[in-house]
Amino acid sequence: MPRKAATESLADTDAAQGGVAAVDRALSLMSVFAPGDKALSLSELADRTRLYKSTVLRLLASLEHARWIQRLDDGRYALGGEIARLHGIYAASFSLEQVVVPVLRDLVAATGESAAYHVRQGDARLCLYRVDSPHPVRDHIRAGDLLPLDRGSGGRVLTAYDPVRGRAPGPEQDLYARIRADGYFAAMGDRLAEVAGISVPVFLLNGDIAAAVTLTAPVHRYVAAHLAAVQEAARRLTGKVG
């Protein structure tokens, strides 16, 4: 009988409910490649996935056959050409709107307030997508509007995570350091006296900031507990946008 591992493998700790364990383990071999990894040895793959080397070798045989993994002349393993082929198909069919807007709709449904997706554009921020609150009293920003970087929760978050602006000496350096430490910014009246906002950063796969998800409400309807819903929206988008 196969030995039972003393420590659960990476795949076993996050197994797909109702899925196939062997598939989870094979996919975990590809997921452990990190930015900067050109190739990994058998030992590195076993260590990162917490799988036995014998198991890794069997999985690699199938992944090599399907061109998901390639074995190099020095014995190490690199990602294979099938990934590049599928990436081309994905890139051609990718629609940022189809990724972002459903998440914003869910955020509005959960909170009853307006949700937006802001990106940096030069010295301003662009409201790229917006889903309005069902309440008649709300702020009336629209998709396509340009807003300041130095006011409003979305602008503060985009600035805080900017590698230059967010760390430049100045009176607001402590504020931006706190935003990075907290992982969000919430404020009332930062851009407009009557408007409150909660913003959380959305990151690219390489760790750089891509955007800010923002929930806005009139000050009298502001609910600090809505932070959790904004964080969940940002988590769903992180790594899936570009």
Automatic annotation (TrEMBL):
Pfam families: HTH_IclR (PF09339), IclR_C (PF01614)
PROSITE patterns linked to this entry: HTH_ICLR, ICLR_ED
Molecular function GO terms recorded: DNA binding; DNA-binding transcription factor activity
Residues that span the membrane, as ranges: none
Residue stretches making up the HTH iclR-type domain: 20-81
Domain named IclR-ED: residues: 82-242
Keyword Transcription: yes
Keyword Ribosomal protein: no
Entry keyword set: DNA-binding, Transcription, Transcription regulation
Superkingdom of origin: Bacteria
GO terms for biological process, alphabetical: negative regulation of DNA-templated transcription
Name this polypeptide is given: HTH-type transcriptional regulator KipR
Organism: Achromobacter insolitus
